[in-house]
User: Which sequence fits this backbone?
C-alpha cells in the first residue's frame, strides 16, 4: 500500500521528536543504544545489524515502511553521533540510497525531496550513475522537476552505458510532458525547458 501524505507527515513528526530526545542525551554510548533500540522496535533489527547488511539485502528484507524508518535513523546517527568524517559520509550515502529506493512512494517523495537534495550535496563526491538516476526518479515523483533534470544529466556524465542512461532520462522527461503547466512552471520546468532537455539528450546520443 502506498504511503498517504498524513502518514508520512506523522512519521516525520515522530522522528523529529526522537531527534530532540537524542539531543538531550549527552553520552555517545547512550545515544548509540537509543538508536539501536529504536531500530529494533521499528525495523526488527538493531541499527548496528542493519549497517552490517548491504543495501540490496535491506531492500529485500524490509517493507517500504521499514526502509523509510531505517533511512531516518541512519540520518540521525550521522547527525547526532561523534563519527569519523569518513564514517559519517558512509552513513549519509547509505541513507541516500535507502531513501531514493522509495521513489515509487509519491507522498514521501513530495515531503522528503529536500532531505534527498541535502544528502546529494553531502555525498556528491561518492555518487554513481545509478544513484543519480534513482534520485531523479524520486524528484520526479515528488514534482521537484528541475532537480530531476539536474540529476539525469549528472548521472549521464558518469554513465558507463550512456544509451541506458539516455533512455531512462528520456522516459522521465517525456513523462513530464504529461503534466499540466500548473505543475511544470512552479517546479522550474516550463514545457519549453522540458523540450530543450530532450533535445540535449538527443544531441548526447549522437556524440
Assistant:
Amino acid at each position: 500500500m502506498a504511503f498517504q501524505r498524513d502518514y508520512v507527515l506523522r512519521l516525520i513528526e515522530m522522528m523529529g521528536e526522537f531527534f530532540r530526545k537524542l539531543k538531550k542525551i549527552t553520552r555517545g554510548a547512550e545515544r548509540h543504544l537509543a538508536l539501536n533500540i529504536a531500530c529494533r522496535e521499528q525495523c526488527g533489527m538493531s541499527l548496528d545489524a542493519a549497517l552490517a547488511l548491504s543495501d540490496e539485502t535491506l531492500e529485500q528484507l524490509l517493507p517500504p515502511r521499514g526502509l523509510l524508518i531505517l533511512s531516518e535513523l541512519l540520518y540521525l546517527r550521522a547527525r547526532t553521533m561523534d563519527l569519523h568524517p569518513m564514517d559519517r559520509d558512509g552513513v549519509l550515502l547509505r541513507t541516500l540510497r535507502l531513501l531514493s529506493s522509495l521513489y515509487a512512494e509519491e507522498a514521501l517523495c513530495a515531503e522528503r525531496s529536500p532531505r534527498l537534495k541535502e544528502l546529494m550535496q553531502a555525498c556528491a563526491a561518492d555518487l554513481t550513475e545509478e544513484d543519480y538516476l534513482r534520485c531523479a526518479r524520486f524528484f520526479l515523483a515528488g514534482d521537484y522537476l528541475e532537480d530531476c533534470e539536474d540529476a539525469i544529466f549528472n548521472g549521464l556524465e558518469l554513465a558507463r552505458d550512456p544509451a541506458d542512461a539516455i533512455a531512462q532520462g528520456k522516459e522521465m522527461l517525456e513523462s513530464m510532458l504529461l503534466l499540466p503547466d500548473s505543475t511544470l512552471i512552479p517546479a522550474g520546468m516550463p514545457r519549453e525547458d522540458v523540450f530543450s532537455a530532450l533535445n540535449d539528450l538527443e544531441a548526447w546520443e549522437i556524440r
